[in-house]
Amino acid sequence: MKGVTVITHPLVRHNLTRLRDKRTRPQEFRRVLSEVAALMLYEATRSLAVRGTRVQTPLAPAHGFKLSREVVLVPVLRAGLGMLDSILQLIPAARVGFIGLKREETTLRAQFYHKSLPKDLQRFEVILIDPMLATGGSAVSAMDLLAELDARRVRLVNLVAAPEGIKHVRGHYPALPIFTAAIDRKLNERGYILPGLGDAGDRLFGV
Predict the structure, then answer these.
(1) What element of type H or E holds 165?
(2) Catalytic residue chosen out of the listed positions 20, 95, 103, 170
(3) Pairing with 55, which of 14, 30, 38, 187 sits 20 to 30 Å away (CA)?
(4) β-pair partners for 187
(5) Which has the closest alpha carbon to 182: 129, 131, 110, 128?
(6) What is the DSSP string of 98-145?
(7) How far apart are CA 102 and CA 78, in angstroms?
(8) What is the torsion angle, in degrees rounded to the nearest 10, for the CA atoms of residue 100, residue 79, residue 95 and residue 56?
(9) Which residues contact 133 (CB under 8 A, 6 or more apart)?
């Protein structure tokens, strides 16, 4: 699927299976989700721009590289929090913004309940983090907000995606790069991904 990268690293596939298993308890779910997020980040950031620099080693000058732009991590609350800490371990200098979205259960539309983002997003690389890409409503709403703040370089990282969600996002943001560990079969009548892994937020926090 154009513009969608399915990350098939063996450790990602192994850990995704553990996350799908309904027997996996919240403590293990949190740990495994964090591990998967770190593994996925390598692929999701592969195309980040770098520029040359020089440093002094203990023995001699050396040519190296540094990121061309600062990074902003934007987890969608609640479930996106489960992927945040391990990504921050890899990009500790990143700034963090938060978007709170709740799906209205009858219309399946996403509603904002929290927004906290840096200004001048046009100068950042933005990584939007949301474990589940189901209907795509939350992703599009989050992207609408980022676009209002002039974000120009955004990539979306999801653990599991539904074809319907990808299609919906593509209809609004055709150039948005999407990184996921799996594209599942479809949505059920309640808008949940099949086979999916249930409600990621509920399983993450045990509620």
Answers:
(1) helix 163-172
(2) 103
(3) 38
(4) 193
(5) 131
(6) EEEEEE-TTT--EEEEEEE--S-GGGEEEEEE-SEESSSHHHHHHHHH
(7) 9
(8) -170
(9) 139, 156, 158, 160, 161, 162, 165, 166, 169, 178, 180
Of 8, 17, 53, 107, which residue is the catalytic one? 107
Q: In the beta sheet, which residues pair with residue 59? A: none
Token pair 């589940």 is found at: 132
Q: What is 59-76 written as a DSSP string?
A: SSEEEEEEESSEEEEEEE
Q: Residue 108 has what pLDDT? A: 63
In tens, the pLDDT along 32-80 reads 999 999 999 999 999 999 999 999 999 999 999 999 999 999 999 888 9
CA distance 200 to 82: 9
Which residues on neighbouring strands pair with residue 1, listed in sequence order? Answer: none
Strand 178-183 relative to strand 154-161: parallel, antiparallel, unpaired?
A: parallel
Q: How far apart are CA 197 and CA 201, in angstroms?
A: 11
69, 95, 109, 199: the active-site residue: 199
Beta bridge partners of 191: none
Mean pLDDT of the chain: 93
Contact 204, 26 (CB under 8 A): yes
Q: Is 199 a catalytic residue?
A: yes
Q: Is 107 an annotated catalytic residue?
A: yes
Exposure of 164 in the CB half-sphere (CA atoms within 13 A): 14
Whether 202 sits among the annotated catalytic residues: the reply is: yes
